[in-house]
UniProtKB/TrEMBL annotation:
PANTHER family: MALTODEXTRIN IMPORT ATP-BINDING PROTEIN MSMX (PTHR43875), MALTOSE_MALTODEXTRIN IMPORT ATP-BINDING PROTEIN MALK (PTHR43875:SF3). GO terms for cellular component: ATP-binding cassette (ABC) transporter complex, substrate-binding subunit-containing; maltose transport complex. InterPro entries: AAA+_ATPase, ABC_transporter-like_ATP-bd, ABC_transporter-like_CS, ABC_transpr_MalK-like, ABC_transpr_MalK/UgpC-like, Mo/tungstate-bd_C_term_dom, NA-bd_OB-fold, P-loop_NTPase. Residues 4-240 form the ABC transporter domain. It comes from Paracoccus tegillarcae. Keywords: ATP-binding, Nucleotide-binding, Transport. One of its GO terms (molecular function) is ATP hydrolysis activity. It holds the Pfam family TOBE_2. The lineage of its organism: Bacteria, Pseudomonadati, Pseudomonadota, Alphaproteobacteria, Rhodobacterales. This is Sugar ABC transporter ATP-binding protein. The keyword ATP-binding applies. NCBIfam families: PRK11650.1.
Length: 377
């Protein structure tokens, strides 16, 4: 395997539309990197440029120590798994798996050995004599995965491979793919993976690191825990997490007792956060995750009061939707702690955990609550 590096990579289409804005990204040898973002963020375009299916307008892409800008896809040492599986419909599974090796004129005994090994790893031995039309979605996706795996490429590229599967099968395939990646790593055959998805659950559960993209820009690259707990900006904060982070307009005052005022209500902020902000004040975006703001008795200090407009029973927890001023907030409460007398239209007080509050610059979106955090730890 090999590492993958993008340096100042751009993509400009006819008419001057710039889809990718000079991005820099390094995927380490054997790393599982996920590109995630909303539709139109250029994550698939980036993947296709790595594969050689899209030409780059500027910058440099290297795999290992080789610059691959001018190499055709077949010479880049990559294998790609597509959303639509792209199996040859007239070939049985066995031939679909081995076709790439036959094109490379590998010895027949190696082809047979590799086919048996890969089908065993993916548990598709019983499917080898079936045509693609005789496979379920999950089976077809495993065959597509096997066709990539059998090539022993430098880099695996996945373009939303699970989006056509139902929710239960997607969950199963997530586990299967990550287990395969870990197994290859444990066997000394680490697989470098770039995986594109719009599904943040896939991103958070599968990636060693995650690259969050927006409008052709990289917003943050980090491991799942860091993205969740220390989002670099308001976009990442609002995109990562289920339900998404509560975000609302507020005013920060640090003269005297540091406070946040939102919808005409004022709460004090945690001492540690106040120290990091170094007397910064003015309009901000207030952020708190639904799991970190909870209902409290009326009159509790440092709580925000609003009206319940919806309740969602999720089994193990309840999502309480509360309107505070002109902003909708969600509080996630474990079912055993939920007050079942609460109903739509009731007034409720929500208190954020002070240590979990995020504040974002109103203009740039930068997470100013992370300022000086490392120097204080």
């Amino acid at each position: 395997m090999a590492d993958l590096q993008l340096k100042s990579v751009e993509k400009v289409y006819g008419g001057g539309f710039k889809a990718v804005h000079g991005i820099d990204l390094k995927v380490e040898d054997g790393e599982f990197m996920v590109l995630v973002g909303p539709s139109g963020c250029a994550k698939s375009t980036t993947l296709r440029m790595i594969a050689g299916l899209e030409t780059i307008t500027g910058g440099e892409i290297s795999i290992g120590d080789q610059v691959v800008n001018d190499l055709v896809p077949g010479k880049r040492g990559i294998a790609m798994v597509f959303q639509n599986y792209a199996l040859y419909p007239h070939m049985k599974v066995r031939r679909n798996l081995s076709f790439g090796l036959k094109l490379k004129k590998e010895p027949q005994d190696k082809i047979e050995r590799s086919t048996q090994e890969v089908s065993g790893i993916l548990e598709i031995e019983q499917l080898l004599d079936r045509l693609p039309k005789q496979l379920s979605g999950g089976q077809a996706q495993r065959v597509a995965l096997g066709r990539a795996l059998i090539k022993s490429p430098e880099v695996f590229l996945f373009d939303e491979p699970l989006s056509n599967l139902d929710a239960k099968l997607r969950a199963s395939m997530r586990v299967r793919i990550t287990d395969l990646h870990k197994r290859l790593r444990d066997e000394g055959r680490p697989a470098t993976v770039v995986y594109v998805t719009h599904d943040q659950v896939e991103a958070m559960t599968m990636g060693d690191r995650i690259c969050v993209m927006k409008d052709g820009h990289i917003m943050q690259v980090a491991d799942p825990v860091t993205l969740y707990e220390r989002p670099a900006n308001a976009f990442v904060a609002g995109f990562i997490g289920m339900p998404e982070m509560n975000l609302g307009s507020a005013v920060l005052t640090t003269d005297g007792v540091p406070t946040i005022t939102m919808a005409g209500q004022t709460i004090t902020i945690a001492e540690g956060l106040a120290e990091r902000l170094q007397m910064r004040e003015g309009p901000v975006t207030f952020g708190i995750r639904p799991q970190h703001i909870e209902p409290v008795p009326p009159g509790t200090p440092d709580a925000l009061v609003g009206k319940v407009h919806n309740l969602e029973f999720m089994g193990h927890e309840v999502n309480i939707h509360v309107t505070i001023g002109d902003t909708d907030f969600i509080s996630v409460v474990p079912t055993e702690r939920f007050d079942h007398s609460l109903k739509r239209g009731d007034e409720v007080a929500l208190r954020p955990s002070g240590a979990r509050v995020h504040l974002f610059d109103k203009d740039s979106g930068e997470n100013i609550s992370l300022a000086n955090l490392d120097t204080q730890n």
